[in-house]
Design a protein that fits this description.
Blueprint lengths: L1 H11 L14 E4 L9 H6 L7 E7 L11 H8 L5 E7 L3 H11 L3 E5 L6 H10 L3 E6 L17 E5 L14 H9 L7 E5 L7 H6 L4 E4 L1 H4 L4 H12 L1
Parallel strand pairs: 1-8, 2-3, 3-4, 4-5, 5-6, 6-7, 7-8
Helix pairs in contact: 3-4, 4-5
């Protein structure tokens, strides 16, 4: 693996990857899963000046029961946005594919704790390629399973819906799970939450310790996505 990583580093070391916003701050990360794919560049442009992070939900049809998009789409939209690209890999083999998503323009890669690969190896591959590292867990996974890995990542992503499809309802145990995770994290690590985030749930999850909120339908499903971002932020205050 050392030889492979050295070769990959030589390929990717010239990339100008962005960094996650520094803590403390509350960030909204719109998910393009709910955007208009027939007019994606314009839809992303509507929120370009309102947020710092763009969330990219990547699904392979194996790890979750849906297929979304791959590196080719990310490479295309990279030319239209200066936002931090937060690639959430809901796939079976992130070690194999993470380099391709980084090459396409992803600044951060989030892998799943439940993925059938060596989690620590995946973290090392992503870190050695210069990207930010996130780790995610599904609603049914005990948060205690994060303990061996949490110190090595920049962000933890808590799913408050079952991953695979957008538009699901927020699970009510989300705040309790968020509090447990927040207690595991350093001040410089982000806690991201994805699933059912809107003006009715955002304050609950922020009060529990989350600082990065993924929202899809609640932003791109609205006539004015930028205003929708403002409305979510206002609901937190």
């Amino acid at each position: 693996m050392i030889v492979i990583l050295t070769q990959l580093y030589d390929i990717y070391k010239g990339f100008d990857m962005k960094q996650l916003p520094a803590t403390p701050s509350i960030e909204i990360a719109p998910s393009i899963l709910s955007a208009d794919f027939a007019d994606l560049a314009r839809h992303i442009a509507t929120i370009e000046n309102s947020v710092k992070i763009l969330h990219l939900d990547v699904m392979d049809g194996h790890f979750v029961p849906n297929i979304t998009f791959g590196p080719c789409l990310i490479k295309k939209i990279r030319h239209h946005s200066d936002l931090f690209f937060d690639a959430h890999l809901m796939i079976d083999n992130p070690i194999k594919y993470a380099p391709e998503f980084i090459k396409a323009g992803s600044d951060g890669i989030t892998i799943h704790l439940e993925s059938p690969c060596d989690t620590m190896d995946a973290i090392r591959v992503i870190r050695d390629l210069g990207a930010s590292v996130g780790i995610s867990l599904k609603p049914g996974t005990p948060v205690e399973q994060l303990h061996p890995y949490v110190e090595y990542v920049d962000m933890v992503l808590l799913m408050t819906v079952e991953p695979g499809f957008g538009g699901q309802a927020f699970m009510t145990d989300g705040p309790e799970r968020a509090r447990k995770i927040r207690n595991m994290l350093r001040d410089d690590q982000r806690l991201e939450v994805d699933g059912g985030i809107d003006v009715g749930t955002a304050s609950l999850i922020v009060q529990a310790g989350a600082d990065t909120l993924v929202a899809g339908n609640a932003i791109f499903g609205k006539p004015d996505p930028a205003q929708a971002v403002s409305d979510i932020l206002a609901s937190i205050c």
